[in-house]
Amino acid sequence: MEGEMARIGLVAHDDKKDDLCRWAEAHRDKLARHQLWGTGTTGSRVMEATGLEVGLLKSGPLGGDQQLGAMICEGRLDVLVFFIDPLSAQPHDVDVKALTRLATLYDVPLANNKSTADAVLAAI
């Protein structure tokens, strides 16, 4: 996949959205070479922060996590960047677990924090 356009899903829990936006700003030039998809608020915030085009899905709790999961199952997502907040309970935790399970099952690179997102982005 190196050098090719990748389809990247972007999602972050509420307390991690600022971190994901800062990460996207720092990597704006590289992300601009790829197709980006994001759950509602996260995708909108990344677009505002970077000026990049992000295909917007539903908000995570309203089905956006499941939409990303469907994209993984259908072979329409190459990378998932999901900044997870490990210290806060999430009301839609079952959706989060399903999404991360699908990324694992379908062998889609999954970055849960800045360090892994840096490594995954460097590899594509």
UniProtKB/TrEMBL annotation:
The active site is at D65. GO terms for molecular function: methylglyoxal synthase activity. Pfam families: MGS. It catalyses: dihydroxyacetone phosphate = methylglyoxal + phosphate. Keywords: Lyase. It comes from the Bacteria. Catalyzes the formation of methylglyoxal from dihydroxyacetone phosphate. This is Methylglyoxal synthase. It comes from Devosia honganensis. The lineage of its organism: Bacteria, Pseudomonadati, Pseudomonadota, Alphaproteobacteria, Hyphomicrobiales.
